[in-house]
Amino acid sequence: MTTTLDRGAQPAVVLRPARLSLTPKTALAGRLDGAWWPRSRDLEAELPALAAALDETWGRVTRVTVNPSRWPVVPRTVAVDGRVLHVGWFTEQDPDKLILLSYTVGRWDLLVIPPETEPAAAARLMAAAAIPGSVLAAGVLMANETVIGRGIRDTGRREAAWEDEGGACMSPFGEPFGRSALPLSANGWR
Fold first, then answer.
1. Burial letters 159-183, b for 16+ CB under 10 A, else e
2. At residue 24, what are phi and psi to the nearest 5 degrees?
3. pLDDT (0 to 100) of residue 97
4. In this predicted model, what pLDDT tens digit does every residue of 161-173 receive, in sequence order?
5. pTM
6. Distance, CA of 83 to CA of 77 (rounded, Å)
7. What separation in angstroms does the CA of 89 have from each of 45, 73, 119, 149, 188?
């Protein structure tokens, strides 16, 4: 039996759907048009799925700009469905934002959620970026999420400490009171 290999054939690339949250079509214009949560920091691998998702709703994306501080490699062009998507970079651009351009439809600004973001935090950011008429910039949303995430983690640690101590009261010096250290109430219960 003879097997023939076609070395010129390229393997089919399977695009995972882009994780997007877009503002609904409304007359309220905000600073952002939604959010994008890429799976990696590889623009060449991530942009085709984003462009494919936006072609259906917004029209053909022809150009993308990013801040290079968040992307290790910024290619000049990316192949998307047999066409070329031009990629540019500007250090003055908000590092948490991606700008998409189209000749026919216009410009859209998307918050870029870092790929390593926890799903709960990404969900909060995607919802916040898709609010119609929001005046919050991408950097402000990311800073707010840092504070919110820190608060959630601190609350979780305090609850875990409470559970680990059996729900014991803490002294002002950080040591748990034993039940015998609590004063007796008027009815004799501790």
1. eeeeeeeeebeeeeeeeeeeeeeee
2. -65, 155
3. 96
4. 665 665 555 656 6
5. 0.72
6. 10
7. 17, 10, 28, 29, 72
